[in-house]
């Protein structure tokens, strides 16, 4: 049961077209905290504890999320016009708050759809703590300019997801995934940039990550 649970977790949470596998042997990449690298994962980088029986878990607690924005100097519309080669832009506090709200809402909504995991109020042997964060968040949306007309972008921004699953009693991290992704339409097609479309692309990116998390958790009990 243990091996089936680990294979299922990798195949859905970190799987892709090629069959994913845990690295083995003396050349296997092992993290500082004992996690072993997964090859051919859906996330760019992922690691797992191959000795943990994931089937013992059927409840989750959501830990505090971290949102880290790249430090970008604020510039005026006039200065932006003089530097048309800019590719990353300052994010207002209001837009930072909105991004945090959208991503948090999507993950909470998706986890509620789990068919095998319920929300826990306290730590226990059957409880996983899910901790996530978005790091190095970058905006590709230039500042508004009156009379400039529509702005067309292939990406409204990008961020790196760091996702961890921890045993709630010991606090030990038993799974970690890192994935950098752009908030963009399929194929990188150009789109009009406005509040509605920008929020939609951020929501789409968050939903993709959150769905993979939920499916991976549920797969543990589908063997």
Summary, kept brief:
The protein is of the alpha/beta class and 223 residues long. It has four helices and eleven strands. The model has no long low-confidence stretch (mean pLDDT 82).
Structural class: alpha/beta
- The arrangement of helices and strands along the chain is HEEEEEHHEEEEEEH
Q: Catalogue the unreliable spans.
A: none
User: What value does the average pLDDT take?
Assistant: 82
Distance between the termini: 8 Å
Major sheet details = 9 strands, mixed
What's the total count of β strands? 11
The percentage of residues in β strands lies in 25-35%
Count of helical regions: 4
Over the alpha carbons, how many angstroms does the gyration radius reach? Answer: 20 Å
Proportion of residues in helical segments: 25-40%
How many separate structural domains?
Answer: 1
What general outline do the C-alpha atoms trace? Answer: globular
List keywords for this structure.
4 helices; alpha/beta; 28% helix; globular; 223 residues
Describe this structure in words.
By secondary structure, this protein is α/β, with parallel strands linked by helices. It has one domain (2-219). It has four helices and eleven strands; from the N terminus they run αβββββααββββββα. It has helices spanning 2-13, 77-82, 93-111, 195-219, and strands spanning 21-22, 36-39, 45-48, 59-62, 66-69, 118-119, 127-139, 152-153, 157-167, 173-183, 191-192. Strands 1, 2, 3, 4, 5, 6, 7, 9 and 10 form a nine-stranded mixed sheet that branches. Helix 1 (2-13) packs antiparallel against helix 4 (195-219) and helix 3 (93-111) runs parallel beside helix 4. The radius of gyration is 20 Å and the shape is globular. The mean pLDDT is 82.
């Amino acid at each position: 049961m243990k091996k089936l649970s680990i294979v299922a977790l990798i195949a859905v949470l970190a799987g892709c077209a090629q069959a994913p596998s845990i690295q083995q042997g003396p050349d296997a990449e092992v993290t500082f905290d004992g996690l072993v690298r997964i090859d051919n994962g859906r996330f760019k980088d992922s690691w797992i504890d191959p000795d943990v029986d994931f089937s013992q878990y059927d409840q989750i607690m959501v830990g505090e999320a971290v949102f880290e924005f790249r430090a970008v100097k604020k510039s005026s519309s006039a200065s932006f016009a003089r530097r048309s080669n800019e590719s990353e832009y300052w994010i207002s506090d209001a837009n930072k708050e909105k991004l945090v709200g959208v991503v948090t809402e999507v993950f909470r909504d998706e986890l509620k759809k789990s068919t095998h995991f319920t929300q826990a109020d306290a730590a226990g042997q059957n409880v996983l703590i899910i901790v996530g964060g978005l790091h190095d968040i970058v905006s590709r949306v230039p500042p508004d300019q009156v009379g400039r007309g529509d702005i067309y972008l292939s990406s409204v921004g990008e961020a790196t997801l760091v996702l961890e699953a921890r045993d709630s009693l010991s606090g030990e991290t038993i799974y970690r995934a890192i994935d950098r992704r752009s908030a963009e339409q399929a194929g990188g097609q150009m789109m009009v940039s406005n509040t509605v479309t920008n929020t939609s692309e951020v929501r789409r990116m968050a939903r993709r990550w959150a769905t993979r998390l939920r499916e991976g958790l549920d797969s543990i009990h589908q063997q």
